[in-house]
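Support request, please re-run this one:
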Amino acid sequence: MKKQRKITIADIAREAGVSAMTVSRYLNGKGPVAASTAERIKAIIERLQYNPNWLARSLSSKKSMIIGVTIPRIEHALLDNYIAQILSGVTDVALQNDYRIMLLPFNPEHGTDNEFSNWYHSKMFDGLILLKTMHRDPRIKSLAEQKIPFVLANHKYYAPDVHFIDVNNKLGIRLAVEYLVEKGRSRIAFVAGDLRETNARDRWNAFCKTMQEQNLTVNKEWVMHGQFNQEIAYRESEKLFRAKTIPDAVVCSDDYMALGVIRRIKERGLRIPDDVAVIGFDDIEIAAYIQPALTTVRQPIEKIGRLAAESLLKLLNGKADQPIRRLLSVQLIKRESA
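Re-run finished. Output below.
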C-alpha cells in the first residue's frame, strides 16, 4: 500500500492561493491575515485534515507550546469531578490552539517561595494555570513580581500582575440561605471548606452575613470544618445530630461534603428534606443522581477552566487587558434534598 504523503504548509498555501508565510501567520496567530483569507485557509485545513507539526512549531516560535496546570498532590486527585471539569475546560482550549497541558502536582501547604517560578524558568511550559492554591500563597507573589504569565482558577486575589477567573461565591451562599428561609428553615448549620482557600472564605463570610440579614443566629456548635473532604464532613457532621435540638438545614461549601452529610443524616434515621434539608455547592455530575438528588449552587466549573486557558493565551500573545479579573455568575439548582 502506498504511504499517504503528509500535508504541509506549502500544500495549504498552494490551495489557498497565498504564501506559506501567510499560512504560518494564520497558524501562529501572529501578523495580519485578512478575515476572508483566514476563513479560506481554515476551510482548506479542515478539508485536508492538516495536523501541524507540534515540535517544529515550538522550535520555530521558541515556545514550548505547553501550558502548566498545578493540581494538589492528594490521593485520587484526577478522580475528583471538580478538578476533572476544570482540566476539561483547559484542555479544550489548549488543543484548539495547538497547545498541550502539563500537570504539575504540588503541595498547597508547603513549598519554597520560588517553586512555581523555578518551574517556569526551566522552560518546561510557556505559562501557568494555578488550581487549588491557598490564600496569599507566597509562590503567587513570586510569579507576579517576576511578571511570569499565569492565571488563578477559582481563586480571587487582588494584586498587581495577578490574573484570576472566579465565581460569585457570596451570591451563591446568599441564594442558598434565603431559599432555606423561604422554606421555613431557621436552624441552619454550615459545613465550611478549607478556609485557607479564597472561595471557602467567601462562602463562610457570606453565610454569616446572610444569616444576620435574615435575623438568624449562627450557632457555633453547628459550624463544621469539612476541609472540602467528603470523609471529614461525614465524620465531623456527627456532632450536628448529638444534641436534643438539631439543625433543620445544612449548607455545605461543596457537593462532596454534602454527600458526606447526607450519608450521616441517613445513618441517624432522619429524613431528607423533611427533617433536615441539605444544600451543596458546585453541581458536580453526580449531584443530580444521588438519592435524594442534591439541591446545590451551580458554578460553571468547566467554563472556569476554559476562560483561565483563554486568558493565559491572551497573556502569552500580549493581547490581554491588564489585569484579567472575572467573577462568573452562579445559579441555585433546586432538587429533592431541600
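The chain has three domains: 9-52, 66-167+301-328, 169-298. The mean pLDDT is 91.
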